[in-house]
From TrEMBL:
<dbReference type="InterPro" id="IPR035937">
    <property type="entry name" value="FPG_N"/>
</dbReference>
<dbReference type="GO" id="GO:0140078">
    <property type="term" value="F:class I DNA-(apurinic or apyrimidinic site) endonuclease activity"/>
</dbReference>
<keyword id="KW-0326">Glycosidase</keyword>
<dbReference type="GO" id="GO:0005634">
    <property type="term" value="C:nucleus"/>
</dbReference>
<keyword id="KW-0227">DNA damage</keyword>
<dbReference type="Pfam" id="PF01149">
    <property type="entry name" value="Fapy_DNA_glyco"/>
</dbReference>
<keyword id="KW-0456">Lyase</keyword>
<keyword id="KW-0511">Multifunctional enzyme</keyword>
<dbReference type="InterPro" id="IPR012319">
    <property type="entry name" value="FPG_cat"/>
</dbReference>
<dbReference type="GO" id="GO:0008270">
    <property type="term" value="F:zinc ion binding"/>
</dbReference>
<protein>
    <recommendedName>
        <fullName>DNA-(apurinic or apyrimidinic site) lyase</fullName>
        <ecNumber>4.2.99.18</ecNumber>
    </recommendedName>
</protein>
<dbReference type="GO" id="GO:0006284">
    <property type="term" value="P:base-excision repair"/>
</dbReference>
<feature type="region of interest" description="Disordered">
    <location>
        <begin position="296"/>
        <end position="331"/>
    </location>
</feature>
<dbReference type="InterPro" id="IPR015886">
    <property type="entry name" value="H2TH_FPG"/>
</dbReference>
<dbReference type="GO" id="GO:0003684">
    <property type="term" value="F:damaged DNA binding"/>
</dbReference>
<dbReference type="Pfam" id="PF06831">
    <property type="entry name" value="H2TH"/>
</dbReference>
<dbReference type="InterPro" id="IPR010979">
    <property type="entry name" value="Ribosomal_uS13-like_H2TH"/>
</dbReference>
Amino acid sequence: MPEGPELHLASRFVNLACRGLVFCGAVEKSPVSRNPEVPFESSAYCISATARGKELRLTLSPLPGAQPAREPLALVFRFGMTGSFQLAPAEALPPHAHLRFYTASHAPRLALCFVDIRRFGRWDLGGEWQPDRGPCVLLEYEQFRENVLRNLADKAFNRPICEALLDQRFFNGIGNYLRAEILFRLRIPPFEKARTVLEDLLHHRLSPELTLSQKIRAKLQNPDLLELCHLVPKEVVQLVSSPSTSAGWVPASHRRQRLWARSWGGRLRCLPSLAAVLQCAGDELLAGPEWPHHLVSGGSWTPGPKRGQIQKKEIPGNPPRTPGRNGDTRG
């Protein structure tokens, strides 16, 4: 699922791929999409993009002299489970291209496409960020940190830290694989109360006797949870994907393989206890090494079936289940 880094990479891709291109005509929506029509048509316009957390704003700007004369139009995209942008030949559109912007060139004519296989992605007209989303963890770190620490009394922080990290009012851009990496690096029990974890940061101050360079070095060597919410997405942007690829982000399976093989050197992990919760919720998370018993809710953790080997309960009257490719049972 695209998270903050992937949205940032998608905006970078759009800006790079569309640099120097002139688009024309009407915006075309697929008939199967339930998203709104985009009432925009121009003889010549350009496209730019910016990202904030898990949202991307696409701006269509008419060029001077374009007809009909009109103001720029902005759309805000949320990628859902499988959304991405691709630039493709107009005569060979990718499957599931639900919104299409065509260039004026005829040699060959191209289309910038919003591709979404599962159709959970959404776009809204007007260009306004969702008001209930907090500052971006990647691009607005200071505002993000202040927003979290100022609102620790909110009931959202009564929940376990593994759940609170997905609340986009406070952690805009953090998703499943990011929270797993952050919790693993800090050895934080996933079911620890979020307020308990974060209240310590209110009183954490570096010694005023340290020089500026010493303070910076101390923060880089021992980042706290909120700092990792900023630093880990930055690592992903640097490591995961080149913005010049044909798609704006890398699918999760490829992203994890590349993270595992490159600079993180196999450090991408998850907590066994957290993995069990995610399996129940239908989410996917990499399996990792067992955590020390004192890091898991309840003080101990008994290893059970590995991910992909959990046997579902048989229901009387149902046909028997056969093992799937990964050892799981499928009806």
